[in-house]
Design a protein that fits this description.
Two copies of one chain form a homodimer.
Chain A (H helix, E strand, L loop, with lengths): L4 E8 L3 H12 L1 H8 L1 E9 L4 H5 L7 E2 L2 H5 L6 E4 L6 H11 L3 E4 L2 H18 L3 E2 L10 H6 L7 E7 L2 H12 L4 H10 L8 H4 L2 H15 L9 E2 L7 H9 L2 E12 L2 E12 L11 E8 L3 E8 L3 H17 L1 H9 L18 E10 L5 H11 L4 E6 L10 E7 L2 E2 H12 L4 E10 L9
Parallel strand pairs in A: 1-2, 1-4, 2-3, 4-5, 5-6, 8-10, 10-17
Antiparallel strand pairs in A: 7-9, 7-11, 9-10, 11-12, 13-15, 13-16, 13-17, 14-15
Helix pairs in contact in A: 1-13, 5-6, 6-11, 8-9, 15-16
Chain lengths: 442, 442
């Protein structure tokens, strides 16, 4: 028996991530003790279904269906919540905090919806919540935002934080797949749920964005005010035209300080093929942070999966056991009374470049009409590409227009007018181009 | 006056980084207090030359030439050493620790040479040393290695940790510059010293590798046993041939667990153009870490420069002020008595693929002779490219051979024999190809 301080842990929820966490805590206790100076001991695994736990060969003596009793254990000071969702998981976290336990969670939806009240409860109880695993799996982005970057001034965050979407977009870009084909492929490889809505709609990315932005900007984020647009309406031809122009499409979670306020949004965006985020392929995630002193830093890795997410959970358990998570938590100032609600800009105030595709009758003068409607709103054009209509199935010819930086509200108004033109064979397609923070190489 | 706990700081060395640190501590005290809950107060700036300090508009009342007196101040608990080098800097750090101050340092050479003894001294004094800024500037790689990754099992580290070298190699690769041209360019842009030896020889990268590997593998690293090869002998034609084969050359700092031991080395290496490290351009740095649970994570950003490095220093000051740096330091187990000396493999035991270029007389049968000499040592060939001799200035024709994974000692012996062949017009060029950890996308 070693003389290292023992820290007891109760795990609630033993699915993919939970069983990986339990396997690590039980199988690598000595290694963890060497690296942390603490004896991390799993006391109980609480769930209603132990199929995964059995599959992972975990000790059945640890299995328990008694949530209340497990949370009340005197020999445990840390509760790991890996239930998911925002209802039962909320109860688990609240009960754990009320019982005076610190909580480690991977639950982004819970924290995006109820973070401030849970943080407040933890503070009142003199314990903490550690949530590295809630954003981007194995990538230590929460540690970065609450560590070095907390003392810097974050200007913007651009995150690829949903592996399902990035896998689909990579397949659409690299293998010229349609959205439906790429989604089916992702599903068959276990990278997308049978009902992929939460991922492809951008909602999951918005949850992570709310958490990251709250830390980065020291402000309370109203989830409902984040503009969210998914990837499910992207068309192959736009991805192809974008590539011709030197751009790659990614689903970005963006938090950016504009001159007039804070803009938070999730949407597909064209980024330069030269930007490091453009190289993030398949199920990988990455978060680019631009800060006043650090400049551009990027954090890359696996954003999901049992093992990578368990690495973040284990790291958090160690940080709680060491007391570091508690001190960081204390210094974050993320409680409702210490933090103003962020004044989020409406999406109509976004300023960026735009990629527009119109499908128009092949008449002379149509392009001039469109340019005029854009020009009236102060939207100036950077390039025009007219492509031959490839297949004859579609009426009209596609014209791709890219603009200088413009205000989204103006672009929307102009497009309404454009869509009313007689020559338009289909509503204009509009994709934002994000290049506010190009890589500055020297 | 706020009621936040005040933490006094003495800064020793006010050059590029030091003046940026001092400007931040004095100019952003309120912001730092908001984010840390501590009032970080700069008490003194110790140096012999205050030109930079004056340039940065720092308060002259802080300037001091009295090192002893400043280190003895009762109102300071943190000393920031930004002197550089391993002689006077060592004295500063030792005196600070002896005076019971925690130390924040960016000095990789000092830690690579004397880390264990300084850590031991800090432990005896009940204080800590924080050194995020010593490796890769703004990139929080020390936080990653001592945080989440400390509980994981690191298998390998591949780092681009010298911005000067990466700038030169990017220019040689992207703009087809010669080494001399690229170096001159880097010097004129302030990205290389007048005497660039420390950087281009790989020595600076080896210092950082020693620090990172010590943390990642929990072992004491003997700097003298790291194999180091610089970039100054790389030729444009090899970079071009490599690109034809789909490879990009980078100066890599590698720490890798092989079946038979730990291999630590710094050398130019061809990596797949598809690997995220291949995309790291210009003065940027990045560190790829492969670990058992996290899988591949990569940390990217500016590896040098006043502002980016100051961000890491400020982050460390905050971590020391909060007490987190102390707890992490305690749990690291990096002291001589708790850590075995790493048993480092000789470079002859390295196993990787090899790029070979031979300049041979255009006779029949030469290639067969070379293949035979390689084959006798168990080195098998994956591809052969024979190029026409471009200019006629060079005797013979260049033949590029890539091999399957082989043992370095065998390759060296075989090349000695190859070099003795009559048909050889110049000694064979040999560049390692690193692909042990290809990106696994799904």
């Amino acid at each position: 028996m070693s003389d290292a301080k023992e820290v007891g842990i109760v795990l609630v929820g033993c699915g993919t991530v939970g069983s990986a966490v339990a396997a690590c805590l039980t199988g690598q206790q000595r290694h963890l003790e060497q690296r942390t100076g603490r004896r991390l001991t799993l006391r109980a695994i609480v769930d209603v279904d132990f199929a995964r736990a059995r599959q992972a060969g975990l000790d059945e003596k640890l299995f328990s269906r008694d949530l209340e009793g497990s949370l009340a254990r005197q020999d445990a000071s840390v509760v790991v919540e890996l239930v998911g969702g925002t209802t039962f998981a909320k109860t688990v976290v609240e009960k754990a905090l009320q019982a005076g336990k610190s909580v480690v969670t991977a639950n982004k939806a819970l924290l995006a919806h109820h973070g401030p009240e849970l943080w407040e409860l933890a503070r009142r109880q003199g314990v903490c919540i550690a949530f590295e695993a809630s954003c981007a799996g194995a990538i230590p982005i929460i540690a970065a935002l609450t560590g070095e970057l907390a003392c810097d001034q974050v200007e913007a965050i651009y995150g690829i934080v949903n592996g399902t979407c990035n896998y689909i977009l990579t397949a659409m870009t690299g293998q010229d797949r349609s959205y439906a084909q790429a989604l089916a492929e992702a599903q068959s490889r276990g990278l997308a749920e049978a009902d992929p809505t939460l991922d492809v709609s951008g909602t999951d990315s918005a949850h992570k964005l709310a958490i990251m932005a709250g830390l980065a900007f020291g402000a309370r984020i109203d989830l409902a005010k984040i503009y969210v647009e998914g990837i499910d309406r992207l068309q192959q031809q736009d991805i192809r035209y974008g590539r011709e122009l030197g751009y790659v499409v990614k689903l970005l979670a963006i938090a950016r300080r504009q001159e007039d306020g804070l803009s938070l949004r999730v949407h597909p965006a064209f980024i330069s093929a030269e930007h490091p985020l453009a190289w993030v392929s398949g199920p990988f995630n990455a978060v680019s942070v631009y800060a006043a002193r650090s400049g551009h830093t990027m954090y890359y890795g696996r954003g999901a999966g049992g093992e990578p997410t368990s690495a973040a959970v284990i790291g958090d358990i160690a940080a709680v056991a060491l007391g570091n998570a508690g001190r960081s938590f204390e210094s974050l100032g993320i409680w409702p009374d210490r933090q103003a609600k962020a004044d989020l800009l409406d999406v109509s105030a976004v300023r960026c470049r735009y990629y527009l595709r119109v499908q128009v009758a092949d008449h002379p003068g149509v392009l001039a009409q469109i340019a005029q409607l854009l020009g009236r709103r102060g939207i100036s054009i950077t390039s025009v590409l007219q492509h031959e209509s490839g297949n004859g199935q579609v009426e009209g010819v596609p014209v791709v227009i890219t603009t200088h930086r413009a205000v989204e509200g103006d672009v929307r108004s102009a497009l309404e007018e454009v869509n009313r033109l007689e020559a338009m064979k289909a509503p204009a397609v509009c994709i934002r181009m994000v290049d506010e923070h190009p890589e500055r190489l020297a």
